[in-house]
Amino acid sequence: MKRIILFFVAVLVLAATVPTAANAAGTGSGTLSVDKNNVSVSLAIPGGKTKTITSLRVQLRVSVTSGTMDQPDFTFDSSIPSTVKSAAIKKDGSAYMVDIILSGKKNQDIFKNSENAKLGILSLKPTSTDYQIKVEFAGKTDGSNAPVIKYAESSSLSEVTLTMSHALPVTVGSTAQVNAPPSGKTMGKPKLTATVKKGKNRVYFKWNKISGASGYRLYRYDEKTKKYKKIKTITKGGTTSYSKKYGYASSHRFRIRAFKTEAGGAKTYSSYSSTVKVTVPPTKVKKFSAEYWSDGKAALLWKKVSKAKGYQIYRSKKKSGKYLRVKTIRKGKITKCTSVKHKLGKTYYYKIRAYVTGADKKRVYGKFSVAVPYKNKGSSTAPI
Q1: Half-sphere exposure of residue 340, counting CA atoms within 13 Å on the CB side?
Q2: pTM of the predicted model as reported, rounded to 2 decimal places
Q3: 74-119, pLDDT tens digit by residue?
Q4: Coil, helix or strand at residue 201
């Protein structure tokens, strides 16, 4: 009761210098926005009002629709100029009522010539793993069950009551609860595919369109944190593809889910898609060359490919002919092969490619190097 009286104290301060004004009717508006378990509370200056607003009172109702919670806290925004800042929070059955009061002297301006004023942050305190908490503007109604706001201007002694229009409630919830679709409605589970073109490092994602979806969120598994991390939010329900570059010779796991944006900004999520695995191939082998090793063998040399598990060497009698594999190197750090037999007087074309072990335990190959010719002329071709 003491906190409520403070609102009227501010009004009485005006009595010594300002004539009494009649009560007025009209509309006001407020906004609630969610960031994790915090709800930002803002008010818009009443329509058509240009006088300095020195005092106001607005109430919030915090209801637990599932799970459990402790009493919330309200912190006023530091930008609000007010002699009195009071936020009384009390239990009202299974809900909590938050009574927010700002009041001060004649020259105080809560809105500071702005159309909106951020009052502060309501911090929710869930105590269960799964929960849903509804926050809405409340207070005495005008007979139509609409919430109201009360305020006083610098030129007025009497409080003014306005109906709150466009003041939508918000829902804060755990992942498990928010993911659950509304009763009687089922949001489809997306089917995700991820592919990589041969030799490229761009991953192409595709999924089916989900009826009623406002958008999609794509996630990648982080090996360090052992959790899935959001990498992209698609804000169009009709979009069904996306692509992103990743490092060569790297393996990844992805999943996606659809979401529907409800009134007030809360999101309802579908179930996650099945996990898809993809491996980006290694880079193309560079600086590949063929030299004399012996009268019956060639020396093949190349630059090490980062993260390669091994290499495959191919040979053909013609540059554009059919190439056959002649050697597999099973160590990525090796950069030389001298065991390939090469007949004297014969010209062969060689090329090489690196490989890594993919997420599915199968080999993933990079692009072939350029083909290099070599003719073994015997010891006369050996380097001096």
Answers
A1: 28
A2: 0.53
A3: 999 888 877 788 899 999 888 999 999 888 766 677 777 677 788 8
A4: coil
